[in-house]
Design goal:
The structure is a homodimer of 163-residue chains.
Chain A lengths: L1 H13 L4 H11 L7 E2 L1 H8 L3 H9 L6 E2 L5 E4 H15 L4 H13 L4 H37 L5 H7 L2
Antiparallel strand pairs in A: 1-3, 2-3
Chain A binds a DNA duplex (30 and 30 nucleotides) through helix 4.
InterPro entries (chains A, B): DNA-bd_dom_put_sf, MerR-type_HTH_dom, MerR_fam
Organism (chains A, B): Nonomuraea diastatica
Keywords (chains A, B): DNA-binding
Chain lengths: 163, 163
DNA sequence: GCTTGCGTTCGAGCGCGCTCGAAGTCCTAG
DNA sequence: CTAGGACTTCGAGCGCGCTCGAACGCAAGC
């Protein structure tokens, strides 16, 4: 998927450097090379989700999508950009409800920037905690793999049953 | 002991920050200093879950738990160790169904080690992918925080609506 | 004209993982 | 003797995030 590719390159660019990387991401998240507007199927494809889910997001008030003369949805760059953000937040576990709140703040204008920032800071912490938890799980699984995959020692039985 | 070494390295990898990591690793490692057997409330507390959830796991066939003379559950070291593993797998997104399968393999004996190993390898990859996805989300959120929290430049408006 | 295919709306259904509550048992403290 | 509290079993309920299907519209191709 295109977005992932873009972000992956952004990540690679990141490395250890600070503020420069921000600009790099900015550049890379511009959906260059993507059509002016797309059908729901194309958008779903790009976002690695389903047309059903996109309609669901719209029903939930997360994004407004224009229509063509047949009443078919037309996803323009703005809608797609918002959906890229939304799906990224969903992937990191932000509930629909919170996204609705966030979007409501966006729609409410500049004076809500503070609250939005608070939400982002809180979600950043949540993501970091998730990563820590997953790293622990990864360690546990790798440990178990080591006991299974290595020489079949006496440990295996001990750990089989439980740990 | 190998376990301590691995966990120590895990701690270092994680930056040894916060009570959360420490506590989690404590849960991950061994149950030294933990009573010989515990009530469901104590076990739930230790595992950071609810008695209801522990009964649910038992009903699902994931663990067998002894009873005292009153029919109350007694979680011994083996049960707790298994539950530590199970909750760790749950935290990293392994479905109950897969855990049931894994436990069935464990109960089936040594000849299933290979299949268990396969499951663990697959789950390891799943965890790694999750971590990658979360890292991308983290980057995206930090980028947005930077545009909001830094000097309020012209970018803010552009990105507000969508990206 | 008719089929195929992609879209629409709407409401219902589903899978998952708990979560809860009712009704009962047992021990302990007052 | 009684009240409280922690536990038991059981089945039902819930919150979330889609997911599906029915009934329909429109436009192109044979």
């Amino acid at each position: 998927m295109a977005t992932e590719h873009l972000m992956t390159r952004a990540l690679e660019t990141l490395g250890a450097d600070g503020p420069l990387s921000v600009e790099a991401i900015h550049r890379l998240t511009d959906l260059a090379g993507v059509p002016e507007s797309m059908t729901i199927a194309e958008a779903a494809d790009l976002l690695d989700t389903s047309p059903h889910a996109l309609r669901y997001y719209e029903r939930a008030g997360l994004v407004e999508v224009a229509r063509d003369t047949n009443g078919h949805r037309l996803y323009d760059a703005g809608a797609v950009r918002r959906l890229v953000f939304l799906t990224r937040m969903r992937l990191s576990g932000m509930p629909i409800r919170d996204l609705q709140h966030y979007i409501a703040l966006v729609d409410a204008g500049e004076c809500t920037v503070h609250e939005r920032l608070d939400m982002l800071l809180e979600h950043r912490d949540i993501i970091r905690r998730q990563i820590r938890e997953l790293t622990l799980s990864l360690t546990a699984v790798e440990y178990k793999i080591a006991t299974y995959g290595g020489a079949t020692g006496p440990d295996v039985q001990d750990l089989d049953a439980g740990a």
